[in-house]
Amino acid sequence: MKRLELEPRTGQQSMDNILRERRLHWLGHVIRMDGQRIPQQLGAALGGSGLRERSRPSANNWRSVVSKDLLKMGLTWV
């Protein structure tokens, strides 16, 4: 049985959707956190500002994955 046939029959969401929802749920918590909390500080430190050396494309990081999730859902950063 194919994957596309299983999801409607079982009534479960795809793993992609489940992971996307959980990442966006965590993003909501991090955005509302006090600026003194470690996840907030890491988010500010890894903001991606500034120039990088020219090299091969980097592996996906959390910020780029969440940005793609938001784009798929038709949402934007706060």
What do these coordinates show?
The chain has a domain at 13-38 and 61-78. Helices cover 59% and strands 0% of the residues. The N and C termini lie far apart (41 Å). It is mainly alpha-helical. The mean pLDDT is 78. The protein has helices at 3-10, 15-32, 38-45, 62-73. It contains four helices and no strands.
What value does the average pLDDT take?
Answer: 78
Could you state the order of secondary-structure elements as H and E?
Answer: HHHH
Oligomer: single chain
Largest sheet, strands/sense/barrel? none
Number of helix segments?
4
Strand content: under 5%
Low-confidence stretches: none
Distance between the termini: 41 Å
Which structural class is indicated by helix and strand composition? mainly alpha
SS elements, strand count? 0
Q: What is the share of helical residues?
A: 55-70%
| Shape annotation | extended
Computed CA radius of gyration, to the nearest angstrom: 16 Å
How is the topology of this model organized?
Elements: H1 3-10, H2 15-32, H3 38-45, H4 62-73
Brief rundown of the structure:
This protein is mostly helical. The protein is built from four helices and no strands.
